[in-house]
Amino acid sequence: MLFRPIDPARVRVHRGNAHLQGWDVRRSLTRIFGFGGWSTQTLEATCIRDLVRTVPPTETTEGGVRYWATYRAQVRLIVRALDGRVLGFWDDGAVEEASKQVTHGAAHDLALKAALTGGLKRAAVNLGDQLGLSLYRKGPDDLKAQASVIWSMAHPPKDMEITHQTGPVDVPSNEEDALLVDTLLRDISEATDHATLNAISRRVNEEARAGLAPEWVDQLQAAGKQRLAAITRDPGSGQIAAAQDAAAEAPQTTDHRGGRRA
Fold first, then answer.
1. What is the pLDDT along the chain (262 residues), one digit of tens a residue?
2. In the chain, which ranges are E strands?
3. CA-CA distance, 168 to 140, in Å (whole number)?
4. Which of 92, 114, 124 is nearest to 26 (CA)?
5. Who contacts 204 (Cβ-Cβ below 8 Å, separation ≥6)?
6. Assigned domain for 50 exists
7. Do 184 and 220 touch, CB atoms closer than 8 A?
8. 162 is a domain residue
9. What 8-state DSSP symbol labels residue 141?
10. Which of the ends of the chain has fewer CB neighbours closer than 10 A, N or C?
């Protein structure tokens, strides 16, 4: 069962990231290893931030005292054979935060449970695609649902010939998109005013909707924020640079036309 690809219906997407829900991971562990065939051990559960603030009311929420809590958890997943022998264990951790809770207890409860669940989910991916390993693969959702382990030398499937083929590792890089990103990064670094940055930002959003990889979109947006901060801190230098560029280009009559990706 561990060699089967994950059912796409089990996958959830949040902010562009595919993941499994905590209850689904526990259900899958029980289905595969049986009741009592697996367990967890909490190695660490530490509150690393505890905050209380008074927030103003908004159009949709009431104001008042609100509570924040952040926990770091380290979890060990232990898998056993039917006779109780330990087959293996895996450790991993997570940091999670609960914010703007109306009670102190709710903030700590939610943050602690989320951190423990996150640590379990990360430890469980070591058991393969049924526990979410393939979701770490970059690319479209249908590729993430494909099996990534396929076989192991320890327990080779009887109905297939073992080869060195292990399936697609990642989506081939798109040279055209890479060139586009390099061009936009250069344009961002050379921008001297807010209007130019806004125009580039709109272009980035258009490319994101057209399917530009999320990691490249994040890189472009981060570069834009840094350049915007630099221009905001020193608007005079930007205006001077813009004036100098305009003066340098004024005598020229050659029509320079930029390329556009199809």
1. 777 778 888 888 877 788 899 999 999 999 999 999 999 999 999 999 999 999 888 877 788 999 999 999 999 999 999 888 999 999 999 999 999 999 999 999 999 999 999 999 999 999 988 888 888 877 666 666 677 676 666 666 665 554 444 454 444 445 667 778 888 888 888 888 888 888 898 888 888 887 778 888 888 998 888 888 888 876 554 454 445 555 554 444 444 444 444 4
2. 12-14, 17-19, 38-55, 64-80, 86-101
3. 12
4. 124
5. 184, 212, 217, 220, 221, 224
6. yes
7. yes
8. no
9. H
10. C
Read off the amino acid at residue 252.
Answer: Q
Range of 100's domain? 8-144
Q: What is the DSSP letter of 226?
A: H
12-14 and 38-55 strand pairing? unpaired
In this structure, are 129 and 187 located in the same domain? no
What type of residue is 51? L
Single-letter code of the amino acid located at 113: K
Same domain for 30 and 124, yes or no, is yes
Tokens 């993941």 belong to 19
Burial classification of residue 181, based on how many CB atoms lie within 10 Å of its CB (0-12 exposed, 13-18 middle, 19 or more buried): buried
In a domain, 84, yes or no: yes
pTM, rounded to two decimals: 0.58
Tokens of 209: 């909707």
> Is residue 181 domain-shared with residue 226, that is, in the same domain?
yes
Both tokens of 28, joined, read: 């899958």
Residues 135 and 194 grouped into a single domain: no
Q: Is residue 116 part of a domain?
A: yes
